Every structure is written in C-alpha cells, then in structure tokens.
Amino acid sequence: MMPKEQCLIIYLCFLYLIGIYIFLYGFFPERVISAHSSVEDLPERVDDLKLARRELYKQRTPRIVLMVIDALRYDFVDGPQSEQNMPYLSSQLRNNCLLKARVEPPTVTLPRIKALMTGAISSFYDVIANFGSEILKDDNIVSQAISSDLKVVFYGDDTWLKLFPNSFLRSEGTVSFYVSDFLEVDDNITRHIDHELEANDWEIMILHYLGLDHIGHIDGPFSPHVNPKLLELDGIIAKIDSGLKIKDPSNPGILVICGDHGMKDSGGHGGTSLSEVLVPLALLNYKCDPSFSHEEVKQVDLTPLLSILLGLPIPGGSVGKINMRMLSGLDRKTALYSLHYNTLRMFELFKTSNPISGIEHEITKGIQFYKNWVLSNYTNNDYYPAAIRFSNAQNEMSSVIIKNSISFDDYVLLIAVILILQVVLFILAYNAFLEFNFKQFSGQNFLIFLSFVGFHYFCCMINECDSKLCSITYKHVALVICLFAIVFYNILLISANFPYSKLWSRLRPDTIYIMLGLVFVLNLASLTSSSFIEEEHQFWYFAVTTLSLYLLPSRYLLFSLVLALQVFLRKLNQTGDKWAHLPDIGDWLNSTDHKHYLTIYYVIGLCFIYKCQRFKYKRKIVDYLDCVLAVGQLVAIFLQKIAVGTCTLGFVHKEASLGITEARVFWVLTSIRTAVFIYFYEKEPSKRNNEISDMILSSSICVLTLLSKAHNVFLFPSILLFSNAFSKVHPKCSYSQAFFHFCIGRLFYFYQGNSNSIANIDISAGYIGLEEYNLFITGLYVGLNMYSGHILSFVLLIKKLDIKDNLSAIKSFSTMLFVSAVTTLFYMVVVTFERYHLFIWSVFAPKLMFICTQAALISTLIFSTASFSLFFNTFNVTTKKII
C-alpha cells in the first residue's frame, strides 16, 4: 500500500469505529439514577383521614433468607420430574407459595440482580457490564436495609460484592465465571449456613448458588449432573427451612427461593425463550392466596414484597406491582396500606411521562373505598373494592412505565448514520478513481463550519430538543464541535472526489459478480425480519452451499470436498432459535459415554492442525526446533483438555490443576516459538512478508484451538480448505477474494455454534489458564473464541494477497470495509425504524450488539494491518506482500 492509501484506510477505520460508538451511545443511553425513598414517603393520610403509618407498615418477619439459584428453570421446580429433583421443596410447596416469575431480557446475572434489588428494568448496557460490575447507585433493598439498621450477610456470586461493597456484616464471594467448577463453588457457600442460622445478629441473609448455572453452560439442562445438583440444593433448602423453624417456631423467618434467570434447552442463557425467562419464585413460611399460587408475576414484583415484609421503604425506581392475593399472608390493615403506598409511589413515576391519564380516576375510587373501610373501623366490605382498584392501577401503571422507560436519542442516531454513510461514500469515491485527493480546511470553510454549529444550536433552542447533542455543558459542546468538524470535513473531501460515474465502468458483467451481489443484497434484506435474524445461520448455509454448487464444475474435486464438509459442519453444532435444542454431533461427542470417541476425534483433529500451522525454515536445526515447539504446543493443548475432563486417556487422569498449568506451558512454548521466528526469519525482502503471514496464521490457529471446544477442532483445518477453494476462483480479483473471505468468516461463526442470541456466548473460553478473574483477559479470550472464523478468514485473506500488486491490498481492505459498513449502516437504519417493535429487545437489540462487535473487529483488524504496513513504509522497508 502507498502511504496516502494507508492513511485513508486508517482514517476510515477510525471514522467507522466512532460511528459505531456514537450509535450505541444513542441507542443504549445512560440510565438515570433513581431517587432514593425514605420513611417520609410513607403516606400519612388516606384522603383527609390520618393513618398510623409506622404501625401499619413495619417489619413483619424476624428474618428473610433470599436464596438465588443461578439458572433455575421453572420446570425444575414445577415439572414432571420436580418431585424427584427437589422432593423437600415439592412437599413444602403444597402448603406454601409458588409463583411463576417472568424475567425481562437480557437474561444474564448482573441485570437480574439489579432488577431483584431495585425493582427497575435493566438495560442492555448491563450485558457488557456483567463482565465488570460497578457499584450500584440506584435505590435498592440492601441500601434501604442498612439505612434502617438491618444487618445483611451474604455468600455466593461475587457480583453482589462489587455491586454492594462494604454493605454486608459478613460475606464471602465466589467467582461466577469458572464454569467448569460444579461443586466447590457451592460448597464454599453451604459451609457457612450452620453458623449463620445459629447467629442472632442479622435480619437478611442472601445466598447466590452458581453450580447449576455452570452445569448449564457446559452440558445443558438435560445433563446427568443436573439431578444430583438439584438434590444437593434441595437438601440445603431443607437445612435452612428447618433451621429457621427451630430458631423461632412461632414466627420462623421467610425463605425465598428464586432463579435469577432460566436456561435454554441447549444450555446457556441471555435470550428470550420461555425456559430462559420463566423462573420459580417460592416462599416458604409465607402463604399467599391459594388461587394465586402458580400464577405468573414479573420478577421485579418481588422487590416491593420484600420491602413490605421487612418494613423498608420501597426503592424509588421500582416498577414492581403488588397483587392483593400476594399479600394474603399479612393482616388486612397492613396489606391494604401497602397496596395504597405502592400505588401512590408508582403514580408519581407514572405522572412524569403521562401527565394526562384516566388512571387517576381508578386510584381516587380506591382511596375512597379505603377511607370508607377505615371509617367503618375495618368492618365493612370496602376492603376488596379498594384492593382491586389499587391492584388494577398498579398493573396498568407498571406496564406503561416499563414501556416509556425506553428512550432513544434520535439526533445522535442520525449523526452516527451520517458518519458511517460517509465511510461508504469514501470507499466508493476511492474505487471510482483508485486514488484520493485530500483538501485543506480553508478560512472560508471554517466560517461555514461555525455557521453550521450555530444553526445546530438555534434548531435545538427552537425545537426544545432534549438530545445530548443539544446540551450546553462543556463536555457536550466539545463533543458537538468535534463531531461536526469531522462530518463537515468529510463532506468537503467526498465532494472533491466526485463523480462516481467511473465506478460503474470498473464493474464486470461476470456471473460470479452477480451471484456475490445477490448474496449481499439478500443478506441485507434478511436483516429486516426478526425470524430471519434468529435463524441467520440458515441463510449463510444456503448461500455458501449455492456458491459451492455453482463453482463445482471449475474445481470438481475441491468443491466436492467443500460440499461434503458443509454437510458435516452444519450438523456439528445446532444453533439459532427454533432447532437449537435438537441433538447434534457435538452433543454426541461430549456425552459422558463417548469421551473416548471425542479423544480419538480430537487427536486426529490436532494432527490436521499440526499440518496446517507448520512452516519451513531454511536452516534444518531451526526447522527441527520449530517442529518440536509446534508439537509441544499441541500436546499442551491436548493435556489441558484432559485436565478439565473434556478428553480422557486411561493412563492420564484429570488433574487438580484445572488445566491452568497446561495452558501456561502452551503460552510459554508459543512465546519461545515466536521469539525463534523473530530471530531467525529470512532477511530477503521477497520472502519476509510470506513468513510473517505464515507465523501469524500458525499462532492464530494454535491460540484459537486452545480456546475452542474440543469437538470444534476440525473447524480450523476446514476454514483453510474453504479459503483455498474459493481463492482458486478469480484469484487476481481482490474484490471477489475479500467478499469470499467475509462470507467464510460469517459461515464459520455459525458453524462454531454461535447465533444472534446472547445465550450462545461461550464464556467458558474466557477462563482457560486463569487462576482468578481478569476483566481484560477474560473479555479478550471470549471475543477471540467467538469470532475465530472472522479472524482466521482475515489472516487468510492477507496471506492470499498478490505480492506483486500492492494495490490489491487496498482493494481487498476497502471491499471488506465496504461490505461491513453497508451491512452495519443498513441494520442501523432498520433498528432505528423498528425501535418500538415488539421484539426490539429480544431480537433486534442483541443483533445490533453482535453486528457492531463484528464491525469493530473487522475495522480494528484492518486498522492494525494498515498501521503496521505504514510503520514499515515510514522506515523505507520495501514490501511485496502486505502485513
């Protein structure tokens, strides 16, 4: 690449990343911290009648134990096998309260803890924050308990300790991300229970068990490990319940058992399937109305109930409602006062976004019935009419508040779309001329720019716009000036590189280009449908199979092998939404009875990987050394899989190292092998870049093999075969090669078992070789594993570039950037128009996160490669192949 073109590519990648960030900033806005409630918010009157609020609203139970079981599905507690899975709990629920709690997406742990404690609906931003929890500043039950001098103890998922630091009388956290640990993670909680049940210095105990969730991530809900784990948890429930009753037989504390989220039939969580969003909410030593048992409530409805039982002010941001039948375990005076209190509190939230509403009439009628009941000395029949009206009002207000809590910054979204549109226009302008002319920012242009900014603020003032870009704080004014300067300068550059008529003359009327264009357009069209987004893998299976059949006559044997591999790979991992639960080859290989077959399969796969990742040195001694190091890398990977119990050998047993030692040996060998390459690599300019690309490819394959699941070992040799096959078609055309490799990256993303659902993210890859949680390394490992197909396809594209034509690099990079930018731009427009769609948070928003992450990855890879090339060009290093 020439320096000017390198600078252009770097600038476009930078511009692309800015556009992505700004769009996400506008689509997933920062949450407003809710106001904190206090005892002064408790109503003193009903109409003009004074009430004894501290007598009517006070702590009704000496103790509450909140037992959160991560990934506890509803059918585990109320299903065909529930009496076998949890016999004690099943027997107790005949005379206690079991409700079906519906969880709002995203169904991951951090948002669910926030929802339980605050009663507010969490945002999709919390999915990212789930990997690096911050202090919870919203009003919540824990902070209210501390303000009321109630003592709280906690044991379990250390996410709680990050959200509520220095809030617990006693605590011990367990790391939630070591998903291969089924036993110790729960034993570390259970060992504290006996002591705490004897102690008299706490009112709230929170336990968060993780073992069941870990089983789900590794083996799914139908694993043979599930039943023993449920029996273990049932025994713990029996111990706690018995301990509470022994402590105070006349008024035992209440044991609340609930799941934070459910579990997909295929394992994992994060999506919106019924098995993920329906969890049990069981209350022992507390009776709700028998007619209400097994009814469906929202998970946030637990927040006001816990507050009422503890006599705490309900958190200010809570949208949880209370059904009158849920309070039948309390006396009527307390029950109706609590309904009255929560109704008035919710009405204050409701009024902020709905100043005109008929709901006030329903509340007024309820207040009148309540007043009449009090005046009758609680003897007449006005209790039920009042309770019904308060309950109905809460139902309606809760739904409206949740709906109106969704806010988008449309102005920010528009600016982001314009920025990415400019990236697309830049690429079209360059490909029309195969050169680019830069302009200086003249004084006249500066004056026009200032007028542009002034007009912006004038429009903001006239329209009373509440966008962040209309804010006049220093931070937002600086942001506006920077953004508008970039947009304005881009307009000048694009206008200076018109017309685009030459672009059409470069297009060839070849059938393969028509086929590739059709694949691209159909993929864009599929992004407008929620069903097609959920099953996007089917599109890529069909598209690449069709291309393979079309190209079959040109390379019969090669594409026959490609087609045969596609039949195998698409059955390796079932993915998507509707058929993800069906058994696949991966399930069969990973079953306990077939570990020996998986081991043989994995060893064969490693042999293929050895062949794919080896490259030759001229010096024999160095080549032998590299051979030994390459074999050592693969042996370390194999031993790591044995150590964690994925593979097995009769004479090698699973070790207590949990694969940490083996992974570290792998990284040492990889470092030594890289150092050997740097020291001995050939000095001839004609071969330097061939060797660099070979080394990067070899290292990438080894690292990704370590991070991937054992049954996916054949994906990496397969992607090399696919790249080689499609590179035989129009090998000199950089445009088609870039698009082929983009398609290969997408195809293998789904072959790996990924989908457009958060539930399919394999977080277990993030903890390979780690003794303790590290946010950066964990996130890096998860990302590398998830997008391994895109990474390898990009490295292979670089390797295939024509070393005699420096222009091929800029064509390839601009094509891949163009395809990614148009896809991202089109989808951003779709989600902007569909932002109030019924499935916006369950389907469209997760896809937006995935598509932006993929775009950021591609942009970063291109940015890094172009910067690397520019660095060497600066020092006059002549290159004939781009790296």
From TrEMBL:
Gene3D superfamilies assigned: Alkaline Phosphatase, subunit A
Entry keyword Ribonucleoprotein: no
Main localization, broad class: endoplasmic reticulum
Pathway: Glycolipid biosynthesis; glycosylphosphatidylinositol-anchor biosynthesis
UniProt-listed Pfam families: Phosphodiest, PIGO_PIGG
Topology of the protein relative to the lipid bilayer: Multi-pass membrane protein
InterPro entries reported in the protein's UniProt record: Alkaline_phosphatase_core_sf (IPR017850), Phosphodiest/P_Trfase (IPR002591), PIG-G_N (IPR037674), PIGG/GPI7 (IPR039527), PIGG/GPI7_C (IPR045687)
Keywords in alphabetical order: Endoplasmic reticulum, Glycoprotein, GPI-anchor biosynthesis, Membrane, Transferase, Transmembrane, Transmembrane helix
Domain of life of the source: Eukaryota
The GPI ethanolamine phosphate transferase 2 C-terminal domain, residue ranges: 503-866
Transmembrane segments: 7-28, 411-434, 446-464, 476-500, 512-533, 539-569, 621-643, 663-681, 701-722, 775-798, 810-828, 848-872
Alphabetical GO biological process terms: GPI anchor biosynthetic process
Entry GO MF terms: CP2 mannose-ethanolamine phosphotransferase activity
The UniProt record lists the keyword Glycoprotein: yes
Subcellular location: Endoplasmic reticulum membrane
Entry GO CC: endoplasmic reticulum membrane
PANTHER family tied to this protein: GPI ETHANOLAMINE PHOSPHATE TRANSFERASE 2 (PTHR23072:SF0), PHOSPHATIDYLINOSITOL GLYCAN-RELATED (PTHR23072)
Annotated family: Belongs to the PIGG/PIGN/PIGO family. PIGG subfamily.
Name recorded for this polypeptide: GPI ethanolamine phosphate transferase 2 C-terminal domain-containing protein
Organism of provenance: Cimex lectularius (Bed bug)
